[in-house]
Amino acid sequence: MDKMPAWADAILVPLISLLLAAILSALVIIGIGEDPIAAVKLMVSGALGSTYGWGYTLYYATNFIFTGLAVAVAFHASLFNIGGEGQATLGGLGVAIICLALPWPHWSLALLAAIGFSALFGAMWALIPAYLQAKRGSHIVITTIMFNFIAAALLNYVLVNVMRPVGSMDPASARFSEAVHIPTLHELLAPIGIEFSKAAPANVSLLVALLACFLVWLLIWRTRLGYQIRAFGKSESAAKYAGINPVRITVIAMLISGGLAGLMAINNVMGEAERLVLNATEGAGFIGIAVALMGRNHPFGILLAAILFGFLYQGGAELALWTSIPRELIVVIQALVILFTGALDNMVRIPLEKLFVRFRRSSAGGSSR
Amino acid sequence: MTRLQNILGATTAALALGAGAALAEPAIIFDLGGKFDKSFNEAAFAGATRWAEETGESFREIELQSEAQREQALRRFAESGANPVITMGFAMADPLSSVAPDYPDTKFLAVDVTWLDTPNIRQVGFAEHEGSYLVGMLAALASETGTVGFVGGMDIPLIRHFGCGYAQGALAADPDVKIVANMTGTTPAAWNDPVKGSELTKAQISQGADVVFAAAGGTGVGVLQTAADEGILSIGVDSNQNHLHSGKVLTSMLKRVDVAVYDALKAGENLETGVFVLGLADDGVGYALDEHNEALITPEMKAAVDEARQQIIDGEISVASYYENDSCPAYNF
Fold first, then answer.
1. How far is CA A25 from CA A40, A234, A263, B63, in A?
2. Is B326 touching A (CB cutoff 8 A)?
3. Which of A237, A312, B44, B190 has the fewest Cβ atoms within 10 angstroms?
4. Searching chain B, which residue's CA lies closest to the CA of residue A56?
């Protein structure tokens, strides 16, 4: 079958989808009587026009990289992990426990421990649905989404009844000590002479996220395990025939996926809030699905998609701050992007593919005959 | 292209002008529930709107969408010169404690926060347990089955605080009363889930409840609706919700957030800071009595509740506060 070139598949299709989403959003903004050009300008300058804006954009992007990678790894094994929300919640619990339990001498040690604990807690939360899928055939979509609610209930119970400091009426854990404060980009870049906004929450976990991108790429395309995961995802029966154990691959892929989702907690819990709050993940687990879809389950695509969604979040915050565009409409704009890049992907892809094929045929026909 | 540039230039200029004029405007940061939650945030919006209509001035506002925006919005408003900056809800306490000291010339109003130690914040708390005590008495007095219900939003200390006062009031009016309490959920969606509120109300009716108190934000709309449909009584919260189902809502537990916000906006930059807990004596909390429910509140009920109100103000009755004790003597959550 004729295919369009890889660059068109990876770049042109998302760009056209984005453009369509932008046009529809502009119409919606005109519909409520606001100026779409001013709104776009505000979003761009607010999210990308200063190190302050970048700091927030990258902070959100870091969350989405982790959850996007989590969805992608499971997806390569043909498993639809929509439990990133719950796994990230549990990761937060792991980070809070380890940060509060020990008197850490230096943030770097605490960060290493937090990476371990967040990944462990997230992976353990994914283990039960993985086992149920592998051994009992309970569909992973159902079990992982149910585990999101169990995680929320667990966090609610733990924060209100166990981890809440005496006398505080805010359902949140105590603040972590100064020693486990991980450097923000400001503190990281100041010694090498780069001025970065002090107020923005982007922190060293961005680097961990980039490293995770690279490691996931290495895992999926350069290791035997990655090959097994992909083979299993493409065809379970063929993988079985080739001697790949489906139970083992299902469990391992979900453990990695849950661990990656759990890792998000080093950014939002340790890096930003520096305490565990009730609503810590706030939907990043679900955004991860859109990020993975848009990024074609490839780490580099996920990185770009995560930055785009970070831009939408931070730009949306600026719109909410400085215009009278209601926040529901900002959600509409974000939803339009998800709709066009994720759900309506084929609407752009198939006509474009036909166009490419026709174009190629006519040019090939012209040269050979 | 040049025309486009002109338009762009004009918009920028307009934006800049708008920003310039906005310098002294006060700002309100609504919590995640949004300004149209029919209770807590909407009360603040109502107070601010009343101020804006009376003075002809305007205010900036943001409805938060994420936790990271708490500090961000505070800082941006304070930086832009907004004064005073009003925050809603206990979750703003932590960001306030780190932002407010950086802007000593800006005054902040923190609603539902009373425990910070920063000089430029006016912290306003409400004695919700006292108001809930009164509506709890009314519930027990109005109940024919001897069972009263409570539907909370999430199982957090604030809601236990409401429920604890309610349970104490109900037990004071009728020592044999049975109290059934449910929480709506464990995610923030619990504050805006009228369908689940309706389900819980039906479940409580099947357990014998014939008066249900909703302290659950937008979820309460479903509680009040189902109570009216099923022919039992309900109690509204925060704002006066008696009119939602005239003659079917026994009363509403008033929490005068609107007055606190209105007063702060009126004081403007001269806002008096410090910690203020508004109780029955200051009319910060109370129960609603209007033309929609006067047929439901008998003179005996009114007399009993007004007497208790006076006794609480005089200190003869002390309503245990969940906030102070971290536990409730009347109900085990």
1. 10, 36, 33, 20
2. yes
3. A237
4. B68
Structural domain boundaries enclosing A186: 59-306
Nearest chain A residue to B185, by CA: A153
A272 located within any domain: yes
Dist. CA B46–CA A199, nearest whole Å = 32
Give yes or no: residues B181 and B231 share one domain: yes
Query: What percent of chain A stands above pLDDT 90?
Result: 62
Q: What is the pLDDT of residue A99?
A: 94
The pLDDT assigned to B16 comes to: 38
pLDDT at position A85 over 90: yes
Range of the domain at B196: 129-255+298-325
Q: What is the pLDDT of residues A59-84, one digit of tens each?
A: 999 999 999 999 999 999 999 999 99
The Cα of A165 is separated from the nearest Cα of chain B by a number of Å equal to 11
In a domain, A335, yes or no: no
* Among B76, B155, B187, beta carbon nearest to A321: B76
CB contact under 8 A, B94 and A170: yes
Instruction: Inform me whether the C-beta atom of residue B188 falls under 8 Å from chain A C-beta atoms.
Output: yes
- Looking at residue A360, its pLDDT comes to 81
User: Averaged over A176-200, what is the pLDDT?
Assistant: 88
Beta-carbon count within 10 A of A261 CB: 37
B101 and B181 housed in the same domain: no
Chain A hits for B65, CB-CB cut-off 8 Å, are 316-317, 320, 327, 330-331
Strands (E), chain B: 27-30, 60-63, 85-88, 108-111, 121-126, 147-154, 178-185, 211-215, 233-238, 249-255, 274-278, 285-287
Q: Do A156 and B65 touch (CB under 8 A)?
A: no
- Say which of A157, A160, A170 has its CB closest to residue B90: A170
* Judgement on whether residues B92 and B161 belong to the same structural domain of the protein: no
Best probe of the A interface among B11, B35, B67, B96, by most A CBs < 10 A, is B67
More reliable by pLDDT, A353 or B152: B152
Model pLDDT for residues A238-260, shown as the tens digit of each residue: 999 999 999 999 999 999 999 99
Q: Is residue B263 part of a domain?
A: no
CATH number reported for the structural domain that contains residue A86 in this entry: 1.10.3470
Give DSSP secondary structure letters for B276-312: EEE-TTTTSEEE--STTTTTTS-HHHHHHHHHHHHHH
With CB atoms and an 8 Å threshold, state whether A326 touches B15: no
Q: Which residues in B lie closer than 8 A to residue A160 (C-beta atoms)?
A: 155-157
Which tokens is A102 given?
């020990």
Which CATH number characterizes residue B217's domain? 3.40.50.2300
Low-confidence ranges of chain B (pLDDT < 70): 1-24
Give a yes or no: residue A46 inside a domain: no
> What backbone torsions phi and psi does residue B85 show, to the nearest 5 degrees?
-105, 125
The complex's ipTM works out to 0.80
Report how many domains make up chain A: 1
- More confidently predicted of B129 and A364: B129
3-state helix, strand and coil shares in percent for chain A, rounded to the nearest 5: 80, 0, 20
For residue B76, give the chain A residue with the closest CA. Answer: A321
From the list B11, B187, B326, the residue facing A38 with the nearest CB is B11
CA distance B27 to chain A (A): 10
Per-residue pLDDT tens digits for A10-33: 788 888 888 999 899 999 989 988
Q: In this structure, is residue B262 part of a structural domain? A: no
| B42 occurs within a structural domain | yes
Round to whole Å and give the CA distance between A41 and A324: 15
In a domain, B3, yes or no: no
For residue A168, tell me if it sits in a domain.
yes
Tell me which residue in A169, A268, A327 faces B65 most closely, judged by beta carbons: A327
pLDDT digits (tens, 9 = 90+) for A35-55: 889 988 999 999 999 899 999
The reported pLDDT for the residue numbered B55 is 93
Domain end (from B73, B93, B126): B126
| pLDDT score, position A108 | 93
Residues B183 and B302 in one domain: yes
Same domain, B241 and B150: yes
Residues B122 and B201 in one domain: no
